Amino acid sequence: MTTLSSSRALRRATVLAALLAGGAATSDAFAQGPAPAQAPAPTPQQVQKATSAFQAGTRLFQAKKFALALEQFKSSYDTVASPNSLLYIARCQAEMGSLNESFKTFQRVIVEAEARQDKYGQTRDSAKVEIEELANKISVLTVNVANAKDSTRLKVGGAIIAKEDWGKQLPRDPGPVDVVLETDGLPPVSQSLTLAKGERKTLDLAVPEPKKEEPPPPPPPSDDSSGPSGLLIGSLVLGGIGVAGMVTFGVAGGLSLSTYGEVEDKCGSQPGGKCTAQADLDTIDQGEQQQMIANIGLIVGGVGLAAGATLLIVDLAGGGSSSASADVGEVSVDLQVGPGYAGVRGRF
Questions:
Q1: Which of 19, 213, 325, 338 has the most CB within a 10 Å radius?
Q2: Is residue 99 within 8 Å of 40, Cβ to Cβ?
Q3: Whole-number average pLDDT of the chain
């Protein structure tokens, strides 16, 4: 009897292995992605354990004890990764109100059942129907990213989306959502959406190309010459004329004083102190000419020095610019020339 029971249990385990075996790697894709790698064939003991948990979960599910049923189906799937157990996990999540999680699980069911459609074709078809019904209760957003860089990050509702989920359907609660595409060193690309219940929205975003740095424009040609400014040259020229005039004044004035001294010595001894000789009169004329030359030298020298000093002050106040004017800020410099004098007057 014991041998018969063991034989029956072994045959039952072998039959159920056809339904539960064929484990697959998990994926968050929806009807796309590479086929998952086949796991090692489960042992009869693993099949029996998975079958027992699956049957317990089915009874609890029918009794609407979805939380307890979910635990049993997860235990069955962890023992033998069967799309059938995963299908009931998605159904339990939907019944418990976790619609977004249920949507993701249905996506996994479709991928894993598609990889073994010879055994799980019906499971795949059921998952496709149920995920469409579920999509009418939530919102589904697909974000396509173009020109992505290694540092590009996609955030939907503040949560970072894994790169393998870009371009795939993302379950969302209806309402507003912010989508941000971030790349190091580049401005973010963002868009705000409001998703309606049952809406399927596709959003295309692209990482902006970095702006090419253009070389700065060449500096404008400078008006300043490397040599002295025109004002400085003018001040030197006028200063030279002024010095020459003062030298002329000194020389001619000295000669004039000498001549007048000679005339005074000759004519002072004559009656009345008057010169009568023609030679003395010629000497007087010579002295007057010398005095006139001295006066002219004095005027030219004074004007030259004053004008030269004025141009020098303006040049220094204007920073050596040849275009500097006589008015610098609140300072005004004027050249004053008059009969018998020359000078510079400044106003502050």
A1: 19
A2: no
A3: 78
pLDDT in tens, 163-206: 999 999 999 999 999 999 999 999 999 999 999 999 999 999 99
**Model pLDDT, residue 37:** 55
Claim to verify: residue 10 and residue 118 sit in the same structural domain: yes
Within 10 angstroms of residue 165's Cβ, the number of other Cβ atoms is 19
307 in Cβ contact with 335 (< 8 Å): yes
Q: Are strands 139-146 and 200-206 parallel, antiparallel or unpaired?
A: parallel
The structure's pTM equals 0.54
- 222 is a domain residue: no
**Is residue 295 situated within a structural domain?**
yes
Task: Provide the edge-to-edge strand list for the sheet that holds 200-206.
Answer: 169-172, 139-146, 200-206
C-alpha atoms less than 13 angstroms from C-alpha of 49 in its C-beta half-sphere = 13
The DSSP-derived string for 92-116 is HHHHTT-HHHHHHHHHHHHHHHHHT
Note the pLDDT tens digit of each residue in 121-139: 999 999 999 999 999 999 9
Which tens digit of pLDDT belongs to each residue from 268-296? 656 555 665 666 666 677 777 777 887 88
Instruction: Using the Cα atoms of residue 97, residue 99, residue 101 and residue 104 in order, give the sign of their dihedral.
Output: positive
List all residues 6 or more positions away from 183 whose beta carbon is below 8 Å from its beta carbon: 148, 149, 151, 152, 153, 207
Interatomic CA distance for residues 12 and 340, integer angstroms: 139
3-state secondary structure of 340: coil
Mark whether 18 and 131 lie in a shared domain.
Answer: yes
Helix (H) / strand (E) element for 267: namely helix 230-267
Do 84 and 160 lie in a common domain?
A: no
CA separation for the pair 18, 11 (Å, rounded): 11
The one-letter amino acid code at 303 reads V
Residues 6+ positions from 77 with CB-CB distance below 8 Å? 50, 85, 86, 89
Give the residue numbers spanning the domain of 253: 230-347
